[in-house]
């Protein structure tokens, strides 16, 4: 087991209810190098001898004086702010978050939204996919489409889901869901809610689908940020069907053989056309390895700055 000469442990501070698969990837990377990892929802539980405090922002707490001067502080911004007055929320964070040692951003667009003016070194780190998605084996197909992830966004696609069902296509939805979505799905005979599953179980369900579905509301910041589900679909060998928006349009230019983007999916005829087109679409796994967490970690500049070699 390898170990950094200077870092004994890393303490992550995370928002309490967020789903953060990147923390599992960090934990695996660090523990393989003999570095202790702990997760906190408050800086109050972080021990005073901590060497690295890594804050998933959200908010960023002030660092109490009880910590040693050599403390390394990382602020990670995996998303720009959402909801009402999102731009002002980003400006507030820029003005009032304490100055860390390093910053991490999901991509260049997210970094630009905060527009920090100091000289703190920053690094980009995209989302990734666990290794077990890449070993998904094809299986008997039980449904036409699968949707994995944040389900509240599907409420903006009532017409599309209704058209899919009317076309006789089946869809399963994996993820925690609200009563509003449950009521909507109850009117769609070919759509089923499976609830939240462990991430390690997702490849099994992907293997039973013909294609992965990605529907994203045309709202900031979603249209500029990574839809991790798309990487998961591709890693499992599934073609992807999506509405058109900035991030997916750019990705589809790289993977025309696997990603099928349509501006309109609100009629049964559209879904029948999609099925005919999908015959010519398939994911090529040898081109998808760059989305694995292993690849993301090996190219992550912050880990190299901390002398944590891939």
Explain how this protein is built.
It is a single chain. With 310 residues, the protein is α/β, with parallel strands linked by helices. It has eleven helices and twelve strands. The strands form two sheets. A six-stranded parallel beta sheet has the order 2-1-3-4-5-6. The chain is globular. The mean pLDDT is 92.
What would the keywords be for this entry?
310 residues; alpha/beta; Rossmann fold; 2 domains; six-stranded parallel beta sheet; 11 helices
Task: Give a quick rundown of the structure.
The chain has helices at 21-31, 86-96, 108-114, 158-166, 179-185, 202-206, 228-235, 246-254, 268-278, 293-298, 301-305, and strands spanning 9-13, 36-40, 52-57, 72-77, 102-105, 122-124, 143-148, 171-174, 191-195, 209-214, 240-243, 259-262. By secondary structure, it is an alpha/beta fold.
Strand content: 15-25%
Kindly state the number of beta strands: 12
- The poorly predicted ranges are none
CATH homologous superfamily of the largest domain, by name?
Answer: Glycogen Phosphorylase B
Number of helices: 11
Which strand order do you get reading across the main beta sheet? 2-1-3-4-5-6
Distance between the termini: 13 Å
Q: Which structural class is indicated by helix and strand composition?
A: alpha/beta
Q: What is the C-alpha radius of gyration, as a whole number of Å?
A: 21 Å
Give the total of domains.
Answer: 2
CATH class of the largest domain: Alpha Beta
CATH architecture of the largest domain: 3-Layer(aba) Sandwich
The run of helices and strands is EHEEEHEHEEHEHEHEHEHEHHH
Oligomer: single chain
Q: What gross morphology would you assign? A: globular
The name of the CATH topology of the largest domain is: Rossmann fold
What is the average per-residue confidence, as pLDDT, rounded to a whole number?
Answer: 92
Helix proportion range: 25-40%
How would a crystallographer describe the biggest sheet? Answer: 6 strands, parallel
InterPro entries: YkvP/CgeB_Glyco_trans-like
EC number: 2.4.-.-
Protein name: Glycosyltransferase
GO molecular function, one term: glycosyltransferase activity
